[in-house]
Structure formats: C-alpha cells, structure tokens
Amino acid sequence: MSLRFERANxxxxxxxxxxxxNKLNDPRISPMLYVSEAKVAPDFKTCRVKIxxxxxxxxxxxxxxxxxxxxxxxIKRELAHMLKMPSIPKLIFELDKGTQAELRINQxxxxxxxxxDEGQE
Length: 121
Known about the structure:
The protein is α+β, with helices and mostly antiparallel strands. It has 4 helices and 3 strands; from the N terminus they run αββααβα. The chain has a 3-stranded mixed beta sheet with strand order 1-2-3, with helices on both faces.
C-alpha cells in the first residue's frame, strides 16, 4: 500500500473517530465506541470504516451501525471541513468482528474457575 493510501486511511480514521465522539449527539452511540480501521478504495470513491465497541448484543450492534450509516451525510460534511481532499469517499460502516471476538473470548476466560499455582500470585 502506498504512503498516500496509508496517510488517507490514518487521517480518515482519526477524524471520523473525533466526529463520532464529539460532534455526533446521539444517545444510542456508546462513548466506548471507536474506529478501529478505515480503508479507502484505490479510486477514493468508497471507504470501509470498521467500528468496535464493548457490546456483545447483536441487535445493539446492528442499531449502532444503522445510526452511523444514516448519519453518513453529516459525518462526510464534517470530514470535508477537516481534510483537504478533492472529494470525500462514500462511508460504509461495518462492525469489526475481530475485536468483538476478542471481547467474547476475554469474557469467557474471565468466567472460568482456574485455580492458581502456588508459585504464581
């Protein structure tokens, strides 16, 4: 991947995270939500934005993704003020399944009753 794409991905990821946390006033959006990845297509027409948060509920996850997708116009407008790009790509919000799986594994591990060895504290 070229430096141009890496820089665009990084700036878009950082700025969308800022917009969601500080400018998008929707009570359905969790303060624990963060943008884990932004990936711009080679033609700069679309950008896949992976969202991660601390919910294990599938319905809540779908609701948050729908809220973000409906707020795409607002987010793009704010992004246009922050970035110097000829055009802002269409934003496609997705749930980051890797982070969700990690949270689920940690939850399962925390419920296991594993006795500690005497040498460990």
